[in-house]
Amino acid sequence: MRSRYTAFVVGDAVYLHDTWHPGTRPAELTLDPQQRWSGLEIVDAVDGGEGDQRGVVEFRAAWRHGRDRGVLRERSRFVRQDGRWWYLDGRIDPT
Q1: pTM here?
Q2: Four-residue CA torsion sign, 83, 85, 89, 23
Q3: Which tens digit of pLDDT belongs to each residue from 32-91?
Q4: Structural domain that includes position 8
Q5: What is the CATH number of the domain that holds 58?
Q6: DSSP states of 53-76 as a string?
Q7: Fewer Cβ neighbours under 10 Å: the N or C end of the chain?
């Protein structure tokens, strides 16, 4: 989760694509170069340990785009296959 957040911060769309599960990732991923990320807080984590095959991470990420500011809150699902963690999808909290 933290590595994917860092990829958003530095604008590394290739890393985000490569860590997104092939069954759920979009055909194309374009990042907005004006979007700035300024903080990550892990709110909750369920499973995702050494012996687990699935995990869920809920987080808040502060962002800025021009004069607009906000916080993205998402509950992300991950799956481990062949010893590697993949991002499956996330549910964004609209509040």
Answers
A1: 0.91
A2: negative
A3: 999 999 999 999 999 999 999 999 999 999 999 999 999 999 999 999 999 999 999 999
A4: 2-27+36-93
A5: 3.10.450.50
A6: SEEEEEEEEEEEETTEEEEEEEEE
A7: C
- Residue 94's pLDDT is what? 82
The beta strands (E) that lie in the chain are given as 35-47, 54-65, 68-81, 84-93
Q: Measured between alpha carbons, how far is 73 from 30 in angstroms, rounded to an integer?
A: 20
Q: How many domains does the chain have?
A: 1
Going across the sheet that includes 54-65, the strands are 35-47, 54-65, 68-81, 84-93
Residue 95: is its pLDDT beyond 80? no
pLDDT of residue 17: 96
CA dist 43 and 40 (Å) reads 9
DSSP reduced 3-state for 51: coil
Alpha-carbon gap, residue 33 to 35, rounded angstroms: 6
